[in-house]
Design brief:
Elements: E1 5-10, H1 16-28, E2 32-37, E3 47-49, E4 54-62, E5 65-66, H2 68-74, E6 77-79, E7 82-89, H3 98-108, E8 111-118, H4 124-139, H5 162-178, E9 187-188, H6 198-202, H7 226-230, E10 236-237, H8 241-249, E11 257-259
Parallel strand pairs: 1-2, 1-4, 3-6, 4-7, 7-8
Antiparallel strand pairs: 4-5, 8-11, 9-10
Helix pairs in contact: 1-4, 5-8
Bound molecules: flavin mononucleotide and iron/sulfur cluster (2 copies).
Flavin mononucleotide (FMN) binds near residues 12, 62 and 121.
Length: about 260
């Protein structure tokens, strides 16, 4: 099977899923590469995908699940037996049930998963090699029906040392018991903010109103940190004791794992 086009479908507030997805597309090496970026679009129209392209669906993991905004936005898509590579991108902790969740949704939407991965976002060369391996897998069959169904549960779970998990749970329980207030939105330094509006444009959910950049609507904010990373004045910060616990318990990136 030779597919002339790859379509990256992603939700990527801080651009890692986008970069990983693009590296996979590059490795696959189709004639045409296109991107359907669901990060900042709130359009409701249904998007119909044909069967003769390879979809690369790349989304971040939030709290061990597919980022909920991505989950909702993906539901606009109707695929027609379109082969898909499923990719969950996560930090140093764990992706828990996110890949199974994405697999279930993709099948409901009409995709046929042919490969899945949780590539290491620090090594885009490995992501490209994964794309190349997907191409070789598809080149070896005449049609998708020649492939055995992909079972995402067979993917190797990240190695999670018992001590790190124990420390993480203990620290989270301590933090909850301490009653320390947890920030719900990024803080803004009014001395630094120039009201350039970049954060308004970067926010995937419209939690910052134009002209009112010092405030954030906590009922909408998904705490993705796109505004924090994208503020040219470093005026936005999201410092929670939770991030310190995460980085001390899980300091190292997880190894790359993919399933073909
Ligand atoms: C609200 C939120 C929750 C997150 N939850 C997890 C998690 O459960 N496990 C994990 O390993 N990383 C977690 N992360 C880290 C993201 O998955 C990681 O930074 C990812 O690369 C972000 O993708 P993006 O750059 O495409 O937006 C979380 C990040 C955010 C903002
Ligand atoms: S991006 Fe930064 S400087 Fe610009 S409006 Fe937002 S907070 Fe202010
Ligand atoms: S305001 Fe909240 S949702 Fe919007 S970009 Fe910042 S952290 Fe993300």
């Amino acid at each position: 099977m030779i597919l002339p086009e790859t379509r990256l479908i992603c939700f990527s507030p801080t651009l890692t899923s986008l970069k990983v997805g693009k590296a996979i597309m590059k490795g696959f090496g189709a004639e045409r590469n296109t991107t359907l970026d669901l990060t900042r679009t709130a359009q409701e129209d249904e998007i119909v995908l044909p069967a003769d392209l390879l979809a690369v669906i790349a989304v971040p993991v939030y709290g061990g699940k597919v980022a909920p905004t991505a989950f909702v936005r993906l539901q606009r898509i109707r695929a027609q037996g379109t082969p898909a590579v499923l990719v969950v991108v996560y930090g140093n902790r764990d992706y828990e049930g996110a890949l199974q969740e994405l697999d279930g949704l993709a099948r409901l939407l009409g995709f046929v998963p042919v490969a899945a991965g949780r590539p290491d976002s620090h090594d885009l060369e490995q992501a490209a090699q994964f794309g190349q391996a997907v191409r070789e897998k598809l080149a070896g069959v005449a049609s998708l029906s020649d492939l055995p169904p992909l079972q995402v549960t067979r993917i190797q779970r990240p190695r999670q040392p018992f001590l790190a998990r124990f420390r993480f749970i203990r620290e989270v329980v301590r933090l909850r018991r301490s009653g320390k207030p947890m920030p719900q939105v990024p803080a803004v330094d009014s001395e630094r903010c120039t009201h350039c509006g970049a954060c308004v444009r970067l926010c995937p959910v419209g939690a910052i109103a134009p002209g009112d950049e010092l405030n954030t609507d906590a009922s909408i904010c998904i705490r993705c940190c796109a505004c924090v990373k994208g503020c040219p004045m470093e005026a936005r910060h999201f410092d929670t004791p939770f991030s310190q616990i995460l980085s001390s318990c899980f300091p190292d990136p997880k190894e790359n794992h993919t399933l073909l």
